[in-house]
């Protein structure tokens, strides 16, 4: 076995063998539509008034109906994306024994995560590894300069994109952009590097379990392998890779803040047998004391802080293997 691979087989042996695998939903043959999510050309934001308006309308509509869309001419250069991918591959190629050390890269413990070694049910298994990077911690990676500078360049490029999308969406639901300026900064966002190794049981184990993001908005870059699926009208829909595009999705916090006008959508990644896959997600979110409260009437969700939301999802994850999310705050 490759030294860099997490010990999935070893850790999952009992759960995989002790179960009738027919009981597990078959990820490959489950209802998957190949329908494409909206693709929006952002270059129109810099054109005349009419084109700008048209583009903004598409962003708003996609966030309402889909909670997911792709953008092209997003302003993030190919060079930045390429160097991010290169460094990401390099860091995941390090031996598992090193990646799983407490202070790997000098980052806080649990920054590196793999699969779900504490799963008690085969449906909770995941075939993936991830590196969580809280942006204020990047400065600690002084021994890994090239990774750090690629991550910083990526963040520098996607932050203004996230901000301009948030500003457009906020205006539509009468939220001042100053709310975001006050609560979100480079010190409150984070990045997640994902790697999905080849999996010998792609119909039985998922790459990443279904979840909604705990952000206002997420910007995702995936490679050309595919595997990301989102839930639409009760069916899983595959997001076809587009090398020119970035994926944008609404997180639970914007759903709550907009009183459900914008939708946060469940998504997952299916595993592949023959090819590994990489993705990187930038989560635009607030500080833990930020108050999430819609000014619409009647409100759908009770007022909560981001800290409360995080505490609740962590508790739910521990207790039932699922983070449940925003439905916990429904009135
Ligand atoms: O890898 C992907 O395409 C999705 C990743 C994701 O949903 C996440 O990191 O929250
Ligand atoms: Fe996600």
Structural write-up:
The chain is α+β, with helices and mostly antiparallel strands. The protein has one domain: Jelly Rolls (Sandwich), CATH 2.60.120.330. Helices cover 31% and strands 21% of the residues. The protein has eight helices and 15 strands. It has helices spanning 8-17, 49-65, 78-92, 96-99, 145-172, 177-183, 252-257, 306-320; strands at 32-33, 39-41, 68-72, 112-114, 129-134, 190-196, 206-211, 217-222, 228-232, 235-238, 246-250, 267-270, 277-284, 291-292, 304-305. The strands form three sheets. It has an eight-stranded mixed sheet with strand order 2-3-11-8-13-6-5-4. A five-stranded mixed sheet has the order 1-10-9-12-7, with no helix packed on it. A two-stranded antiparallel ribbon has the order 14-15. Helix 2 (49-65) packs across helix 5 and helix 3 packs across helix 5 (145-172). The radius of gyration is 20 Å and the shape is globular. It starts with 7 loop residues before the first helix and ends in an 11-residue tail after the last helix. The model has no long low-confidence stretch (mean pLDDT 93). Bound molecules: 2-oxoglutaric acid and fe (ii) ion. 2-oxoglutaric acid binds next to strand 6, strand 8, strand 12 and strand 13.
Offer a quick outline of the entry.
Helices cover 31% and strands 21% of the residues.
SSE topology:
Layout: H1 8-17, E1 32-33, E2 39-41, H2 49-65, E3 68-72, H3 78-92, H4 96-99, E4 112-114, E5 129-134, H5 145-172, H6 177-183, E6 190-196, E7 206-211, E8 217-222, E9 228-232, E10 235-238, E11 246-250, H7 252-257, E12 267-270, E13 277-284, E14 291-292, E15 304-305, H8 306-320
The structure holds 2-oxoglutaric acid and fe (ii) ion.
């Amino acid at each position: 076995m490759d030294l860099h691979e997490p010990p999935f087989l070893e850790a999952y042996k009992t759960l995989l063998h002790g179960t009738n695998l027919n009981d597990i939903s078959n990820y490959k043959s489950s209802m998957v539509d190949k329908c494409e999510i909206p693709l929006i050309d952002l270059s129109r934001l810099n054109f005349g008034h009419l084109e700008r308006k048209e583009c903004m309308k598409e962003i708003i509509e996609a966030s309402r109906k889909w909670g997911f869309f792709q953008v092209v001419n997003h302003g993030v250069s190919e060079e930045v994306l390429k160097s991010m991918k290169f460094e990401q591959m390099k860091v995941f190629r390090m031996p598992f024994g090193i990646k799983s050390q407490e202070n790997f890269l000098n980052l806080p413990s649990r920054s590196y995560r793999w699969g779900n070694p504490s799963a008690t049910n085969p449906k909770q298994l995941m075939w993936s590894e991830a590196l969580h990077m809280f942006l204020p911690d990047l400065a600690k990676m002084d021994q890994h300069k090239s990774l750090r500078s690629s991550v910083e360049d990526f963040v520098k490029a996607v932050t203004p994109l996230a901000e301009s999308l948030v500003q457009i969406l906020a205006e539509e639901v009468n939220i001042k952009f100053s709310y975001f300026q006050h609560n979100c900064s480079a010190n409150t966002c984070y990045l997640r590097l994902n790697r999905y190794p080849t999996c010998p049981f792609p119909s039985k184990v998922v790459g990443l379990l279904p979840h909604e993001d705990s952000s206002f908005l997420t910007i995702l870059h995936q490679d050309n392998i595919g595997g990301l699926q989102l839930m639409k009208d009760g069916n899983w829909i595959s997001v076809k890779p587009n090398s020119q595009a970035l994926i944008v999705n609404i997180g639970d916090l914007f759903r709550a803040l907009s009183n459900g006008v914008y939708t946060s959508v469940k998504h997952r990644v299916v595993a592949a047998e023959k090819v590994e896959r990489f993705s990187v997600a930038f989560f635009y979110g607030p500080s833990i004391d930020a108050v999430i409260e819609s000014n619409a009437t009647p409100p759908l969700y009770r007022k909560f802080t981001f800290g409360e939301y995080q505490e609740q999802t962590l508790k739910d994850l521990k207790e039932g293997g699922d983070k449940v999310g925003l439905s916990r705050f429904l009135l």
